[in-house]
Amino acid sequence: MALLELAVSTLTQGLIYALLSCGVYITYKILDFPDLTVDGSFPLGAAVTAVALTAGVNPYLTLLLALAAGAAAGLVTGLIHVKLGVRDLLAGIIVQTALFSINLQIAGSNLTVERGVATIFTAGPTMALFGGLSLLYRKLVVALILTLAVKLVLDAYFRTKSGLLLRAVGDNSTLVTSLARDKGSMKILGLTVANALTALAGAVVCHEQRSFSATMGAGQVVFGLAAVIIGTTLFRRVGFVKGTTAAIVGSIIYKFCIQAAISLGLPANLLKLATAVLFLLILVAGSARKKGGNIHAGAAARSENL
Amino acid sequence: MLELQHVQKTYNPGAVTELRLFDDFNLTVARGEFVSIIGSNGSGKTSLLNLICGSIQPDGGDVRIAGQSILRQPEHRRYQRIGRVYQNPALGACPSLTVLENMALADNKGRRFGLGRGVSRERIPFYRQQLAGLGLGLEDKLGVKMGSLSGGQRQAVALVMATMTPLDFLILDEHTAALDPHTADRIMELTDRVVREKQLTAMMVTHNLRYAVEYGSRLLMLDHGRVAFDCAGAEKAALAVEDVLGRFNALRFDCGGEPAPARRAG
């Protein structure tokens, strides 16, 4: 029974963090932009949420606040990269670093949401719908609904004109220019959406564990990349599986791997080391299978020849 | 009408590798002209196209379309009325999107890319018809990812995509150079047909002297940023490959004595 409960809570974790991996899917897979803002925007979402919950804001509304805060962070990274011409990795590092202080300003180094405060898992509407379930299963159901909702909205967006153009930016930015569109604005849009989702993940984690910690962002980029690469590698040969589905499945698999390692006796202090090793293995395995495929047009895009 | 007036362009100014490419360069292209541009590497062909499209800015002078200077327009704005097909077939479309999605993107050029449906069903017959015109059977491959088509097929689709919306200019940047001779011939025929049917004003850079002679209404030979030879109309129609080759070689002999400055390919 304990094993089942552990599995359910791990699945819940996988679903919640899938919000983050969907964000990383947008930046890393679609925009071809390694966005390090994530390590800052994830705790940003949690910080905003912890403060808002403590101040008595409606728990569902805190999700929107987190989305907005994350969007602002992504917007800043995008503007720094596109308008100031700072390289993608550096733009992300700059904002991530700045966010660490901003998060401290918002919520201090730690903030616990008191027991009496209702979260999205315990508030009235949730109880009205799923009150019959134990907290463990209620968390699973709420996480599932949120993640599915985000997935469906993203999938629908990718089929719009704007969504097609966004997919084109990472694929072949030269084409976007040829289509008389500013590729920079599309990158900014993608980063904004991605970090909004990352902050949403942070918010839900804050609801789930009733706390914010300034260091909770460490390693989230690596987690997101690992989840996306696991998912997309796994479904490489299966054409009809959408990228968002792959990112979600990747997140779940990853959380199960880590949980298995902990259950098998991995000391908590070695968790990040295990994460890094797992990520490396996934990268190597992924690139070994990738050989011969996928030539990126972006790299060879513009040769400013005479 | 396109005008380049007194254009100045120097690469790496002040450095040892300084290269003054264009010094008071002037060119006028009238509406409906199909200009073939030839010249050796470093003669300024690609720079010329990049100056027009806005990938590079001149140091002096003006670039005008229909009498209006376009120098202040950023690159992507200029493409509202310019279509471009690149040497690399991968640059003309998105490899991970399907042929249909690529066609839909091109179809929406110049309009807003909002939250409306990306691929509209009503337009599919039109896309089919456009692709069928290529005679490559691509109209039955709408659902295929662009990246899995051959280079020739991709370049054909790129040509259709670049010319789907109304244009002031079609820019062809060595667009047959990466294809095998047979496919290159095919794409060249298609290009000529599209330019005629849509009555486009086109500028084509090519290293293939035969294409430059056979196709187009005007031939321009560039050398060190100058127009070394320019002929149009009946004179162009009577031109043979040997004539052009002769002039080309004469140019090479002219500067055979002086050491050629280091240049990148172009």
Distance between the termini of chain B: 25 Å
> What would you report as the Rg of chain B, rounded to the nearest angstrom?
19 Å
Count every beta strand of chain B, where a strand is a DSSP E run of 2 or more residues. Answer: 10
Helix content of chain A: over 70%
Overall residue-averaged pLDDT value of chain B: 87
Shape, principal axes of CA atoms of chain A: globular
Q: Share of helix among residues of chain B? A: 25-40%
The CATH level-2 architecture of chain A is identified as: Orthogonal Bundle
Order of helices and strands of chain B: EEEHEEHEHHHEHEHEEHH
Kindly report how far apart the N and C termini of chain A lie.
Answer: 71 Å
Estimate the strand proportion of chain A.
Answer: under 5%
Query: Uncertain spans of chain B, ≥5 residues at pLDDT below 50?
Result: 262-266
- Spell out the CATH superfamily of chain A: ABC transporter involved in vitamin B12 uptake, BtuC
User: So what's the overall shape of chain B?
Assistant: globular
- Overall pLDDT of chain A, averaged? 89
User: Describe the biggest sheet of chain B?
Assistant: 6 strands, mixed
User: Given the helix and strand composition of chain B, which structural class is it?
Assistant: alpha/beta
Major β-sheet of chain A, in short? 2 strands, antiparallel
Estimate what percentage of residues of chain B fall within beta strands. 15-25%
Strand order of the largest sheet of chain A: 1-2
CATH class of chain A: Mainly Alpha
Any descriptors?
heterodimer; A: 306 residues; mainly alpha; ABC transporter involved in vitamin B12 uptake, BtuC; two-stranded antiparallel sheet; 12 helices; 2 strands; 2% strand; disordered C terminus; B: 266 residues; alpha/beta; six-stranded mixed β-sheet; four-stranded antiparallel β-sheet; 9 helices; 23% strand
